[in-house]
Automatic annotation (TrEMBL), chains A, B:
InterPro entries: ACOX_C_alpha1 (IPR055060), Acyl-CoA_ox_N (IPR029320), Acyl-CoA_Oxase/DH_mid-dom_sf (IPR046373), Acyl-CoA_oxidase (IPR012258), Acyl-CoA_oxidase_C (IPR002655), AcylCo_DH-like_C (IPR036250), AcylCoA_DH/ox_N_sf (IPR037069), AcylCoA_DH/oxidase_NM_dom_sf (IPR009100). It comes from Galleria mellonella. Keywords: FAD, Fatty acid metabolism, Flavoprotein, Lipid metabolism, Oxidoreductase, Peroxisome. The active site is at E432. Its cofactor is FAD. Belongs to the acyl-CoA oxidase family. Pfam families: ACOX (PF01756), ACOX_C_alpha1 (PF22924), Acyl-CoA_ox_N (PF14749). Residues 21-144 form the Acyl-coenzyme A oxidase N-terminal domain. The gene is LOC113518439. Residues 286-447 form the Acyl-CoA oxidase C-alpha1 domain. This is Acyl-coenzyme A oxidase.
Length: 668, 668
């Protein structure tokens, strides 16, 4: 059982691969240098014995798991402090550094919110003086914090938050209060028992007036004893679908006082006497939100890639059923239905990673313009990041679940790691903007653009420029090519935006208010937004691979082109109803798409294992009995099972306590 | 916080309801008598203090949870023994009796396999003599068993099982062996540490020949000490996405001997001298499989109904965002996008429950015929139960997840119960026949039927009779009515069966073997099977509600008709691509469908809460902070959180152990 030979099927699959694996790995990482850097980092982290588990955490109690997570988070944080110094901010870096977590803490770190939103908010919303006071303390973990926005009663609707911060000019302090049960902060990661500070969003009251939501930095626990300060009611919110070790917490205040200078004053200010000086523009705060959403897009791509590796390798190792009588059982990877489940997820893993990187670059460009005083592209960037976050998390969640189900019964085992990947990715459909709400935000931008077009304005932002081509009935002819399909998706998006626009207008004409009309058209608005987002993903994926082809070797570039085409044809078939409705495709074109789709599956088949090897996840990061590089699937399943504390005793005490007395009663 | 008043929004919603709630409840249960019986049973069970938890199980370790589950399972089993006596087998009963589990064990009972497959197999596959020996012992729990079919290496492909049972005429015993690692039994519920017997499926060898898979009953633990017998290697397989307390196990044998009479001999026999006498027909064993699949369909419907109750009640209580400036935040149930997420799941809950009951009645009819010696309808029943199990579990899984996501952040809390509902229902997509594999089985039947039709045979079974209308190009006109939509789905199913048939034929003509052609057409075959299944669900749901309308009051029957129409229009829009391709609908008909869909949402809106109240789940069964009858959502969320053992101490030990030293190091 302790052989370390690589499974013969995988050896055979790898021998078939038509491209240079190293080249793909460097392409995925973003360059050879980054690959080396990543590997060195992984090497360092994974050499630390203290980060390994004796007993898999799934067997432990909620409390034990939290305690282990804290221990590991401290080790990792220290390492990061040493590692991250003087490293430039590359679009590739956040993901690969974060990606070490599945190999160590497994679930979410109780410091996760500290490392992301807490630091980002200090960075983005404090004025220089405040930054000087807090930033290095936070970076060095002298204070540990979280970002507390959501309350029991309000997540989506920020203006509805109920926590109050009332300014008292006598003492130059704010008094924080939680006036109702629904005003309790609820959800912030690490808030339960880990952090000693948090950024609190609260309704600011001064000089008898409410000035809306403002951020405050608040110490909630004593730095020496960690005991909650008087006036603070804090604890954890209990078990969830995932995020078991994230220590999400609740928090209430009762006349809790903080100094005036604890309001984050980059955009707005409260003077000593209580005068409120309002912000010039709060649009700058979009910045942080976009960064966070780009990270979510990248994480989702990584998680889907992990699921694809697991499911493809397992499908190469697993043999089941007979294709032909008297022949050996085939690898399940040879069933065309199985290929359909898996290959699109390899393609989607690439597509979304590439889109995430493109979004990051786009954002850097927009930020540069902002620094030059030009805010014109901000609304477009916001609209883009909303729909991309929504659609990418949705696609990746669905893809991971498809990969899990494709592993049959064993995919349901935690040791496959697929259940955890699922529960993390699906959470991202809700946090940082609930997906429907985000799609509606993008829809608002699209409707504005459509109005612009109807008014004859042709100066549109780059990502919506294509809509101009569809403002009037066009006579373009459907073409069964990549570009033809993308054009078809553009026609669908334009058609859906127009339909939604017309529906809303119809309701207004019929006497409804703008807001009611918006609500009545909202199903169509969401669909329009999704269709627009599909255009973006298809275009970016296709263009970026096209560009990369100039420098990649012909063999690799051919395979990547196949993935692009698979992605396009897959979505054309998925959305054939829309394409039939809004583009010039005819019924007779559909069978050709279907044939092409099936051909592509066959073309990709020989490279399937090579392609997932190309995502280059170390076994520790993948953390899956089904997905390890050597394919020792059954050995690992058994090895993991034998770690169960229940298996340490031949007879569990419940037999003598409950079952035996019960059987004896039955005997009478 | 301990008020027991019902939330005002729910009071208002209930006042708006246009039908008699009691009437709906009786309709859902299958009659007033059954409602009373169910309620009495619930009353009895829920009065038992020992079935209540001090600390929610999610906080405990894997081992503790198992031990609690065993304790509760014994109490429940005793109760069932008393309760079930002399009760006739009604199609309604299995579900409502099973339905008490979410209120007691919460997760799956370690006796679950004993109560289902173990008993069913004894019943179905033992001869009379064997039944006399085993049945009452099993019913009285003098022996506790499970059903061990799946192995590490084989689930779907039974013929591939590797466990061997070799007959030794000298001692008149079978010798059981697990020749390889992949031959280990893997998955059987209760096998880990609970059962002392199991039904083992193994390759029978006698007189030097293999006679394929046969069932054996095997004692694996000592009845007094519960210690595994020599030659038995048994344990649990470890944590899963759900089924934490099901105690799924592994099992290997080393030269383990059992008496000859332990082979289940209803269909086949091994004589004393080792002569193998083969079965007349193993088609009779279809029976058990169909019963199990009907139960799965019913369970899935119940679980989706529970999710719909939770999400609809929560959406009535939850207020978020502003529709109009300066107006109070609306109930999220008023967002049309939210209605789209939820109302289809109310309709689907009814549709699938009704289909499950219809399938049960159909099965009883077929069994009656079989007893009269007529096996003609068996293949149809088998094909039906395969695709219905697959499509219903798929729809319910997707629906539950949609309900969960519709609850925003709080839907991710375990205390909403939505994560557990999801993990149970999705498991049913895999066990008792993996869904793709089942759809392909139905496809085989459909292709046979199509061949029959092409050969001019018009004597088809009832559920495929509709295909005759589409054998030749027809000139029926699309109608925007319920019957029109059903006809449209029939056209789609027929079109897809024809396409799949043609594709397979094309590949055969091109020189592929039948089996290769089957595989190459398999994506289309799966889709054909799904389309056929959608026809069945739509027809049965529509017809049964139509019939019921004769006896129901006009008000209730109107609302149920709306649900039927919503179901039909929803799927017509979902499948508009197929309808555009295969039916005579034109592009211009689609907007009418879309308008009708939006109208239906508005029509159902006032009755939404009434409709989910009509599923009549007691709070204990629903077990959800978000879904309780009184709508005290936020109070319950907080009450549950306060039960966390982490919240019992103001400072967790990990602060002093890890965080503080870390902060101090940072200070330097
Ligand atoms: C795992 C996890 C971690 C989290 N971590 C943090 C954290 O660290 N800090 C923090 O502050 N918060 C955190 N949150 C909270 C999170 O940000 C919110 O849950 C999220 O913003 C969604 O808001 P909600 O829960 O209020 O959903 P709701 O808005 O209540 O959504 C419920 C339903 O209402 C619908 N809806 C709401 N408004 C509209 C509208 N205007 N139009 C149409 N439909 C609408 C939604 O589409 C959805 O279907 C976390 C949440 C999760 C799940
Ligand atoms: C929660 C749970 C409880 C269970 N309880 C029990 C129990 O009590 N007793 C017991 O004996 N077993 C039990 N099982 C095992 C279960 O019956 C099997 O997992 C199930 O039959 C699926 O088989 P598999 O795991 O071999 O999947 P596989 O067949 O390996 O499926 C993997 C993939 O291969 C594909 N595939 C396989 N064959 C074909 C084909 N011919 N054509 C096309 N595609 C194919 C599938 O579609 C799937 O995508 C349980 C499983 C679960 C998840």
């Amino acid at each position: 059982m302790t052989s370390t030979k690589v499974n013969v099927d995988l050896v055979r699959e790898r021998a078939k691969c038509t491209f240079d694996l190293k080249e793909l790995i460097h392409f995925v990482d973003g360059g050879e240098e980054i690959t080396s850097e990543r590997k060195a980092f992984e090497e360092t982290v994974l050499a630390i014995k203290e980060l390994k588990d004796d007993i898999p955490e799934d067997y432990l109690s909620h409390k034990e798991r939290y305690e282990i997570a804290v221990r590991k988070a401290c080790i990792l944080r220290e390492l990061r402090l040493r590692h991250d110094q003087n490293k430039p901010l590359l679009p590739e870096r956040p993901t690969y550094v974060y990606n070490i977590l599945p190999a160590t803490i497994k679930d979410i770190s109780p410091f996760y919110l500290h490392e992301t939103m807490f630091l980002a908010t200090i960075w983005g919303l404090m004025n220089d003086e405040q930054k000087a006071e807090w930033l290095s303390k936070a970076l060095d973990m002298k204070v540990i914090g979280t970002y507390a926005q959501t309350e029991l009663g309000h997540g989506t609707f920020l203006r509805g938050l109920e926590t109050t911060a009332t300014y008292d000019p006598e003492t130059e302090e704010f008094i924080l209060n939680t006036p109702t049960l629904t005003a309790y902060k609820w959800w912030p990661g690490g808030l339960g028992h880990t952090v000693n500070h948090c950024i609190i969003l609260a309704q600011l009251y001064t000089q008898g007036k409410c000035h809306g939501i403002q951020p405050f930095i608040v110490q909630i626990r004593d730095l020496e004893t960690h005991i909650p300060l008087p006036g603070v009611h804090v604890g954890e919110i209990g078990p969830k679908m995932g995020f078991q070790t994230a220590n999400n917490g609740f928090l209430g205040f009762k006349n809790f006082r903080i100094p005036r200078k604890n309001m984050l004053m980059k955009n707005s200010e409260v003077k000593k006497d209580g005068t409120y000086v309002s912000s010039k523009s709060d649009r700058l705060t979009y910045g942080t939100m976009v960064v966070v959403r780009v990270n979510i897009v990248n994480d989702a791509a990584m998680q889907l890639s992990a699921a694809a590796i697991i499911a493809v390798r397992y499908s190469a190792v697993r043999h089941q059923s007979q294709l032909k009588p008297n022949e050996p059982e085939p690898q399940i990877l040879d069933y065309v239905t199985q290929q359909r489940k898996l290959f699109i997820n390899i393609a989607t893993g690439h597509a979304i990673r590439i889109v995430g990187r493109w979004l990051w670059k786009t954002m850097l460009g927009v930020i540069q313009k902002i620094l030059e005083g030009n805010l014109d592209q901000l609304p477009e960037l916001h609209a883009l990041s909303c729909c991309l976050k929504a659609v990418c998390t949705q696609d990746c969640t669905a893809g991971i679940e498809q990969c899990r189900l494709a592993c049959g019964g064993h995919g349901y085992m935690n040791s496959s790691n697929l259940p955890l990947l699922y529960s993390h990715t699906t959470a991202a459909m809700t946090y940082e903007g609930e997906n429907t709400v985000l799609l509606l935000q993008t829809a608002r931008y699209l409707l504005k653009t459509w109005t612009q077009i109807l008014e004859g304005d042709t100066k549109l932002n780059p990502t919506v420029l294509y809509l101009l081509n569809f403002a009037k009935p066009t006579d373009y002819r459907w073409e069964n090519t990549n570009q033809g399909i993308i054009k078809g998706f553009q026609a669908v998006a334009a058609g859906k935006i127009k339909t939604a626009y017309d529906t809303a207008s119809k309701h207004v004409s019929a006497g409804k208010s703008q807001e009611e009309a918006w609500n009545l058209a909202s199903i169509q608005l969401v669909e329009a937004s999704e269709a627009h987002c599909r255009v973006i993903i298809c275009e970016v994926f296709s263009n970026e691979i096209q560009c990369a082809s100039n420098t990649l070797s012909p063999n690799l570039s051919k395979v990547l082109q196949q993935l692009v085409e698979l992605y396009l044809v897959h979505w054309a078939l998925e959305k054939k109803g829309d394409i039939l409705l809004y583009s010039t495709i005819s019924k007779d074109d559909i069978p050709a798409l279907r044939d092409r789709y099936e051909e592509l599956l066959a073309l990709i088949r020989p490279n399937a294992v090579g392609l997932v090897d190309g995502f280059d996840f170390r076994d520790e990061v993948l953390n899956s009995t089904l997905g390890a590089y050597d394919g020792r699937v059954y050995e690992r399943l058994m090895e993991e099972a034998l770690k169960s504390p229940l298996n340490a005793e031949p007879v569990n005490s419940s037999f003598h306590k409950y079952i035996k007395p019960f059987m004896e009663k039955a005997k009478l």
